């Protein structure tokens, strides 16, 4: 077999492989000889089938198997011999001419094919360059913990039916039917809906008109949907709601004590405060982690500059671009609405894709040299987390990750990356800095900060809001009179 490099341009490589017809025929004969004692043919005793007859019967089939094995096994062996790693699966080209292919299968013509690929560049780690990190930490005051506990208590408080009229803060149980121009609209009906007056869960003007109602009352109220209401068919429209009041209840006295904690599944008020503090610390810790990671990636970006495989950059760019265009389409916006052009956006996200690929290669090299491993238990947890996101489809999701090439790698990659970041952080020069929560949450607007995350958010600063609006629109289609809940029930979180 002859292996010849025909292209070495940057990271691109092309290899021509020629397996002489004589060599192919020799391998074929070896296989036929091995099969001679195993094949059973009518008219021939076992082991007595002439080679010429075997070749006539099975020659092309065996040769086709041989060709497939060469195509499957040789590229990897060639790369190993050359000391190269391909960025993606090498592209294999061979003759598509049927007559020529038949000659190869008849061992009358050399078998030729070519490999085209991009090599992963050699990365020389800069062990003498120590990373420096400023880790912003929030000192959580007791007052903030107490505010959060009070919010949880508000959501967990009980109501007792009262006689008389509903006041601000009371909970009313109602049936309602919404109409526009006298006709009911989708999502405008609900029975036994519970609403705390003043909670601002319903559109402006709705809750205020329930003040003064009492059980058994029926009334019609008129409201107008906001001009920017997510459901376009309702935005700016005037609507009436026929309401039947079933119950009026006043909130019980709010007390932060062990009894409240037990209602939430905790043994004491002290434990409730401890859990709440832990939740707040976790929330701030995630932001701290993101800022630390940003600093590390920015410094690696400065330290490591090299050509990246175009195939990897193309794949990463296509993933980014698909998401960007999908977000714009769903929001009904254009690039001009985001104060940019498609050409400028493509250029920007292309740079982002190149950065991601380059840093991915750097982190991979650092992790490999440091012996970073992803344990089976970590992969199992990641898989279970994926499965949990698709209730009722657990089996299909499991089968997908078991049968789809590369699916498991999509779970492993983020785990590996975070562990490499942890490794780098353990070796970095870290300075802790106490900041306010406002300082921690503030977006960095300097050039360095924008390179990492802000660059990923252009024009995503607006898109983040759009995503919320899309969710609100979904909720609006279900119950147009309601606003989308901001987050999961605090009591459940506790």
Quick structural gist:
This protein is an alpha+beta fold. It has helices at residues 21-36, 51-82, 98-105, 142-156, 258-263, 269-303, 310-331, 342-370, 376-388, 394-403, 407-427, 437-441, 447-457, 460-478, 490-493; strands at 2-9, 12-19, 91-94, 111-118, 132-138, 159-161, 171-180, 183-196, 218-224, 238-251, 429-435.
Structure commentary:
One of its GO terms (biological process) is cell division. GO terms for molecular function: peptidyl-prolyl cis-trans isomerase activity; protein folding chaperone; ribosome binding. Residues 169-264 form the PPIase FKBP-type domain. With 494 residues, the protein is α+β, with helices and mostly antiparallel strands. It has three domains: 2-118, Trigger factor ribosome-binding domain (Alpha-Beta Plaits), CATH 3.30.70; 158-253, Chitinase A, domain 3; 259-458, Trigger factor, C-terminal domain (Trigger factor, domain 2, Orthogonal Bundle). Helices cover 50% and strands 18% of the residues. It contains 15 helices and eleven strands. The strands form three sheets. Strands 6, 7, 8, 9 and 10 form a five-stranded antiparallel sheet that branches. It has a four-stranded antiparallel sheet with strand order 1-2-4-3. Strands 5-11 form a two-stranded parallel ribbon. Mean pLDDT is 85; it is low at 444-494.
């Amino acid at each position: 077999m002859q292996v010849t490099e025909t292209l070495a341009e940057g990271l691109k490589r092309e290899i021509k492989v020629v397996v002489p017809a004589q060599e192919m025929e020799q391998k074929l004969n070896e296989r036929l000889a091995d099969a001679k004692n195993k094949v059973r043919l009518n008219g021939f005793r076992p082991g007595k089938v002439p080679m010429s007859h075997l070749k006539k019967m099975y020659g092309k089939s065996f040769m086709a198997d041989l060709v497939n094995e060469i195509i499957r096994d040789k590229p990897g062996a060639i790369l190993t011999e050359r000391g190269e790693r391909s960025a993606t699966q090498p592209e294999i080209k061979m003759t598509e001419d049927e007559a020529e292919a038949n000659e190869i299968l008849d061992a009358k013509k050399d078998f030729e094919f070519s490999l085209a690929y991009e090599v992963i560049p050699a990365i020389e780690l800069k062990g003498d360059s120590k990373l420096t990190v400023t880790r912003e930490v929030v000192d959580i005051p007791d007052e903030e913990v107490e505010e959060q506990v009070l919010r949880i208590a508000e959501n967990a408080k009980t109501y007792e039916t009262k006689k008389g009229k509903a006041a601000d803060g009371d909970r009313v149980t109602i049936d309602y039917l919404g109409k526009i121009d006298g006709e009911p609209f989708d999502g405008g009906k609900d029975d036994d809906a519970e609403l705390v007056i003043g909670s601002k869960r319903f559109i402006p003007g709705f809750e205020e008109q329930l003040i003064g109602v009492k059980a058994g009352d029926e009334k019609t109220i008129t409201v107008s949907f906001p001009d920017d209401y997510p459901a376009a068919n309702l935005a700016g429209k005037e609507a009436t709601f026929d309401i039947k009041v079933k119950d009026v209840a006043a909130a019980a006295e709010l007390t932060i004590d062990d009894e409240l904690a037990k209602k939430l599944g905790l043994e004491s008020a002290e434990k409730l405060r401890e859990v709440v503090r832990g939740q707040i610390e976790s929330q701030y810790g995630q932001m701290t982690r993101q800022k630390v990671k940003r600093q590390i990636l920015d410094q690696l970006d400065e330290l490591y500059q090299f050509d990246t495989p175009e195939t990897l950059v193309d794949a990463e760019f296509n993933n980014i671009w698909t998401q960007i265009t999908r977000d714009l389409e769903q929001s009904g916006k254009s690039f001009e609405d985001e104060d940019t052009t498609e050409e400028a956006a493509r250029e920007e996200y292309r740079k982002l894709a190149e950065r991601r690929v380059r840093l991915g290669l750097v982190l991979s090299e650092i992790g490999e040299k440091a012996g970073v491993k992803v344990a089976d238990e970590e992969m199992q947890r990641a898989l279970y987390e994926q499965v949990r996101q698709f209730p009722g489809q657990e089996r299909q999701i499991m089968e997908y990750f078991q049968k789809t090439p590369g699916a498991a790698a999509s779970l492993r990659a983020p785990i590996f990356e975070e562990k490499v970041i942890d490794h780098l952080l353990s070796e970095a020069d870290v300075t802790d800095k106490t900041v306010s929560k406002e300082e921690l949450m503030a977006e960095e607007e300097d050039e360095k900060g924008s390179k990492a995350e802000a660059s990923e958010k252009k024009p995503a600063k607006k898109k983040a809001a759009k995503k919320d609006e899309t969710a609100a629109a979904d909720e609006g289609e279900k119950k147009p009179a309601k606003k989308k809940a901001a987050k999961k029930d605090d009591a459940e979180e506790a």
